């Protein structure tokens, strides 16, 4: 019984080592640009383009989380030592 367990565990290790090799190919294209953030004296805005149409959303720096145009994700605003940090997260 002990010999069988040793043999089985050896085969499991061999199979794991063999599974770590290989090549994965990805194909596709990025067809729309990422959203852009613009900060001016009047405020901060996020512009997203889809199918050639721009949508602009003004970001309120006093709110913690807001949505991107086209519902592409969220914008989080954080304050650290009197500095505003804008984090954009895509879905």
Describe the structure.
- With 91 residues, the protein is α+β, with helices and mostly antiparallel strands.
- The protein has a domain at 33-91.
- The protein is built from one helix and six strands.
- It has one helix at 2-19, and strands at residues 36-40, 43-50, 53-59, 65-67, 73-80, 83-90.
- The strands form two sheets. The protein has a three-stranded antiparallel sheet with strand order 1-2-3, with no helix packed on it.
- A hairpin with a 5-residue loop joins strand 4 and strand 5 (73-80).
- The longest helix is centred in the N-terminal third of the chain and has 18 residues, at 2-19.
- It is extended, with a radius of gyration of 25 Å.
- This is Type 1 fimbrial protein.
- Keywords: Signal.
- Residues 1-19 form the signal peptide.
